[in-house]
Amino acid sequence: MPVLQPDLIVHGGKIATMDAEGTFVSALAAHNGLILATGSDEDILALAGPDTEHIDLSGRTAIPGIIDSHCHPDGAGARIVRWINLEPARTGSRETVLDAIASACNAAPAGEWVAGYRLNEQKSGGYPTLAELDAATAGRPLFILRTDGHLGLANSAAFARLGIDETTPDPAFGAFDHDPRTGSLTGLVRETAAQLFLEAVHSSDTVEDIAAGLEIVFDDYLSHGITSAYNSLTSSNAIRAYQLMRDEDRLKLRVGIIGSGREDGLIESLIETGIRSGFGDEWIKVIAIEWCPDCSTSGRTAAYYEPYVGTPVLGEPANNTGMLLYELGDLKRRALAAHKAGLLVCIEGVGDRGIDFALDIMEDVLAKHPRDDHRMRVEHCCYVTPAVLKRLKALNVVDSSATGFMWELGDAYRANRGDAALAHMWPHRTLIDEGVIAPGHSDSYVCTPNPFTAMAAMVNRVTDTGGTLDAPNAPSQAATIEEALHAYTTLGAYSGREETIKGSLEAGKLADIAILDRDLFTIPSDEISSVQVERTIVGGVTRFER
Prior knowledge:
TIM Barrel; alpha/beta; 2 domains; globular
């Protein structure tokens, strides 16, 4: 009888299996993309055949491939080639933002849309005024998407292109901001008003455009050890792009589709055709569907019971408590239909009022159609007060935690909600101790896909500027590094019902592995954010090597 021989052996280091016992081994063997065995170097190397590939860790540490359980690679793929990246690392001042816009507009044909993304006005000198945008754009229509994806800036030519002026009524669940003194447009547009501009700019995107951009995005993901990406609010064109990439052998990591409730008819089509969560294979799989009724804390639109603090934006409502983007009864009806059809329901909730809105829907759905182990997810789920925590536990809902916000947007959360609110903002110590499942995610490119900066924030409770995320006179909500890594491996897999095939390095599971440049488990905690991935293996095949 022939002996099954591994096509890959990884050995000579410290491999964190992330199994239930927290086992570390020095070696593992894989065949045809699956793990055959784990154990000592002596035992595993004895399995090698003449064609086995050997990867010698030379003392380095390996972990399961990272699962980013809520991210937006399709949106990034549609923008990364043609849009201007205005992230603070590139444009750290108002002047450099305007210079980048002017350069792009001067290079663009007359009348063609110019678009930018990842603007963070709090780190780049504030929002440019409408007059500044007009002066920089040479008559080209311009739209800039704020880093949160919920707000944007338009210039006068863009407003004119869409037929919007000072007298145009706000769309439902959105706003064109006006100067309260003059009534003139400020350029800032919120929520569904921003979506009008996004639809106009993206109207010319093709499936191949998105696929080409996704290749660039996924190369970046792989450089951070990400082997599975759950694409939040996936569009139908992105689903087509993923299938094109699969057909042409261009898909280098695994994709979980979370269908978009923003696209008219998409979820209804999934229901009508009988597609349920779990449809697909280990490369492309329908994970869930999602609606986004809550908004952005850093952009001062997320729904809270108490008003925002700090400096309001020109045109912001008085006593601002944020906004919600659906009628409760309407979303209850939609969610019930999806749940009955076997689709895992995800609903965004950021502030406590927004999370309660999501939980009201889930509670109603489960009362009408009970299901054990439903794994419904509140996406982002940032402000978990004791009352919210009680409801999460009672309904057994997954807190799909926006841990990526902590590092890049934490300063804005503190400024907009106050120091005391930090006691319940991303409260991972409490969530873990109370048994609430809370996987972490980046929401990239709202934030960087780098999971190690988010893990650093979870462990150290600090932002990228060194600002504290702990509330005064309150216990720290810090997690351990092992708990933080679970949030990006085993808990991520659980949130997509994939824990039997990924999330840990055990026999029979996928050989998805990230090899690190240092020992994540023993380094000083202030080094966690600097950890780099040296090699990323997906299904036993090296897809990234530094």
